[in-house]
Amino acid sequence: MTAPKNLPRVLALSARDAEALAELRENLAAWLEFTPDADLDDVALTLATGRERFACRDAVVGTSPAELALLLREKKAAEPSPARAPGDGPLLLLDGTPLTGDPVDLPEVTEALRLATEHGDTDTARTIAVQYGLAQWLRARLVIPRAVHGTGIGAIAAAAFREKHSLADALRTAAGLPETAETESAPFTVDADAPAGTDAVPAVPMVRIGASGPLGLDPADPDSPAHLLAQLWCLGYDVDTTLGRPGSRVRLPGHPFRRRGPGEPATVGAAPYRSLTPYEQRWLFYDLVRHGSSGDHNAAVADVRGGEPPAPEVLREAFAELQRRHPTLRTVFSEPGGRWQARVLPDATAWPVRIADDPDGGPEELREAVLDAARQPMRLRDEPLVRCCLRGGPAHWALALAVYEPLTTTADPRSLLDELTALLGAVTRPPQTQPA
């Protein structure tokens, strides 16, 4: 089914630098003006898939090729976005604002509202269902939150999203609440483990579900989802800017790649380049064409251990020492002069990722969490091709190590993880079964 033409689409762009991004915007604007009948779902899908994603980013939101072309030409040069490590997603806050009017038409919201009709269909239940559905829709768009909290009745929806209880149980709870302003009073206030405000984690943006604004998702505004994803894209998050709408790939203006000028060095620092092996070429080119597929080719292993997790500085030093011992882990892929090559950096550049602790996480939950974080796609260009992720729980901690598949011909992830845990000085203990 074709989406309504009056709904906004997100065109997400990226380039190596601000100059290349400005040229890309101009080329795409000219293409849109020359193709006034272009299917914007096709354009959005083409931009979001099959292209490498760079640090300099921009996004425009509009409903017609003419409007989007105008917005592309109005944009200014952008600063590079920060690199976002796995597990470093935004905070989601479900602020408990009572629902007024009809909510946005999204599949996850519709399904949650269907459940609400089976459990009393009160205003409180509908509000919880809509907030839960919006959070699930964001997850489906690859907005993987660092944490999810709620205020007022939003705390009930947040707990359901975190799988502390099912949505059906949350709606049954809501059915027993009085339909008064007291609904937003205790005990359904801010979660006990919620941050007091954005200042608690200054480097992590907060997305408010139930509110308008640059980083808000207003349930009553059909344009709000598109604008929010555009903002997150520009902040460096590799979100799905197609909005989940189907489309087909079309031929669009390509990235304005520039070769090095005369006299520019073919090496960076003291790290000489070498040709890629056929095995490296096959995997790298496959993942460049199918952007995002590199996560499927991260050879990841994990261990779960009892007790307190290692201190951050201890893990950093151990992971750096592992990289110093194994030059393969310092290998990066680059494209000097327009030709892909590999080089071994003189120093360790990959840093461990500490995922927010799970106060209720058992051994298997912790293991799956670090494996999922370790298998997230890698940038592939001039970035480390190894990843280390740690997460603590109430009685255990889990550690995962991932190595990009082309490097595993000389680096065995399991042996490397065993060596890393030995460097940490950890004592191996079998995971204990959590009491019911």
Give the termini separation. 47 Å
Integer average pLDDT: 81
Number of strands: 13
Helix/strand-derived category reads alpha/beta
User: How would you write the strand order of the largest sheet?
Assistant: 4-3-5-6
Shape: flat
Helix content: 25-40%
Largest sheet: number of strands, sense, barrel closure: 4 strands, parallel
Instruction: Catalogue the unreliable spans.
Output: 178-202, 259-270, 426-436
Radius of gyration: 24 Å
Q: What is the string of helix and strand elements?
A: EHHEHEHHEHHEEHEHEHEEEHEEH
Report the total helices: 12
Q: Work out the strand percent.
A: 15-25%
If you had to describe this structure to a student in words, what would you say it looks like?
Helix content is 33%, strand content 15%. Strands 4-3-5-6 form a four-stranded parallel sheet. Strands 8-13-12-11 form a four-stranded mixed sheet. It has a three-stranded antiparallel sheet with strand order 7-10-9, with no helix packed on it. A hairpin with a 3-residue loop joins strand 12 and strand 13. Helix 5 packs across helix 6 and helix 10 crosses helix 12. The chain is flat and about 60 Å long. It starts with 8 loop residues before the first strand and ends in a 12-residue tail after the last helix.
